[in-house]
Amino acid sequence: MALQDQPAYIIKMRAKPGLGDQLFELATAGMKKSGSSDRFIMAREDEDPDVLWNFEVFRSEEVKDAYENGPLADELRDEIIGLLAEPPMRIPVHPYSALPADPS
Questions:
Q1: pLDDT tens, position by position, 7-61
Q2: Domain residue ranges of the chain, discontinuous segments joined by +
Q3: Tens digit of pLDDT for each residue in 77-92?
Q4: Cβ burial, residue 9 (10 Å; 0-12/13-18/19+)
Q5: Rounded to whole angstroms, how far apart are CA atoms 68 and 56?
Q6: What CATH class has 12-93?
Q7: CA neighbours within 13 Å on the CB side: how many for 61?
Q8: Residue 17: exposed, middle, or buried by beta-carbon count in 10 A (0-12, 13-18, 19+)?
Q9: Which residues, in sequence order, are bridge partners of residue 90?
Q10: In whole angstroms, what is the distance from residue 79 CA to residue 40 CA?
Q11: How far is the C-alpha of 62 from the C-alpha of 17, rounded, in Å?
């Protein structure tokens, strides 16, 4: 499957003040546990450490749908929502390219 055929999300979540570490730990553990992502990057804003950006690329549309409709997603969603200061922003995308860093 070509990278451009893989569904992905860009997600922004803002934790309640002081709960950024807990949000990052839970979100990262959930990504590892689900096994549905081909790759993901968790990023933290320099100016606001309670803001998480997640760039997640799923293995396939079927794997994404199975995860989103499965019990782990429900469990994580409930836990994560309890940590948030505002509703999350989730933008569906498809990757255009992903290149390794230039070693030189």
A1: 999 999 999 999 999 999 999 888 888 888 888 899 999 999 999 999 989 888 9
A2: 12-93
A3: 888 999 999 999 999 9
A4: middle
A5: 13
A6: alpha beta
A7: 6
A8: exposed
A9: 11
A10: 20
A11: 36
